[in-house]
Design goal:
Layout lengths: L1 H16 E11 L5 E9 L4 E8 L1 H10 L6 E11 L2 E4 L2 E2 L3 E8 L4 E8 L2 E19 L1
Antiparallel strand pairs: 1-2, 1-9, 2-3, 3-4, 4-5, 5-7, 6-7, 7-8, 8-9
Length: 137
């Protein structure tokens, strides 16, 4: 019985120590210009971290509409890998919500919008680099 217990503990520890990380780097948008725009996705922890820095021109344009806009910012969202797609948690209400879809095949980040069960998908960013690696400790 003790052997089984130790084996389960070791298996649990090793499963935590191996993490799959995907990084979408140098992402470009049609609407905004960035000095830095990257998405780091930790599949095993279910966390997406976005770090971005607007260009001065984009920052000033956005700042005119909203004084809360920051030049440098980061955000964190929950993600899940479902049917081969990496998607974020739902933001919004049941009648209207959005989700981000990360496409590793063509290095794009898409925005899925749903309004009263009518779905639309648009490309949010095209990324130049996609880096996949596994962390092992």
């Amino acid at each position: 019985m003790k052997k089984i217990f130790y084996i389960l503990i070791l298996q649990f520890l090793f499963s935590i120590l191996n993490a799959e990380i995907i990084v979408f780097k140098d992402c470009k948008s049609n609407d905004y210009k960035f000095e830095k725009n990257e998405y780091k996705i930790d599949i095993d922890k279910g966390i997406m971290t976005r770090e971005f820095v607007y260009t001065d021109e984009t920052f000033e344009k956005l700042r005119m509409n909203d004084m809360r806009v920051q030049k440098e910012n980061s955000s964190i969202k929950g993600v899940v890998k479902e049917n081969g797609e990496i998607i974020t948690e739902i933001s919004g209400y049941p009648a209207f919500y959005t989700q981000m879809i990360f496409d590793t095949f063509d290095k794009t980040i898409k925005l899925k919008s749903v309004l009263n069960n009518t779905e639309g998908i648009s490309i949010l960013s095209n990324c130049e680099k996609l880096i996949k690696y596994k962390l092992e400790s």
